[in-house]
Amino acid sequence: MDLSNQVIFQMIQTATLIVAVFVAWVSIKKQKDTAKKDKTISLLMKDLEDDFLKDGMKALLIVHDSENDDVAIYANPAHRNDDKAIAIRNLLNYYENIAVGVNSGIYDIEMIKKSQKTMILSIYKQSEPFIIRLREKNNNPKLYIEFEKFIQILNG
Fold this sequence. Notes:
Layout: H1 3-49, H2 51-65, H3 83-103, H4 109-138, H5 145-155
């Protein structure tokens, strides 16, 4: 084999290697995206079955719709063990965890936006006075901060 054939052979080998690496990279990325979407679907389906979530949404809605009740009072230490306060905290903790998962790249934000954006925004709006009061009472401005950032992402 002469020198020019060897150079051509080396170029073909190099090009083949580059293409193989690119195909592997695309395949891995696609696999990661599919896994993320699978996790998101599982999460969204769980939402439909979770009694803690249903209880939290129901408690929040009852308090929100009441003319004689205020969600913020359930953040006071005196109401810490009240069923409504526990249900609201459980609901907020759940969405705090989802926010962390989205920020970590575990869940697909676009799928969540398409399926639950309106509901999540409503939950945040209804619970915001509770969150503000809880932050004040605990002297901790970072409580549910990931959920708050998540709301900004959903609104963006």
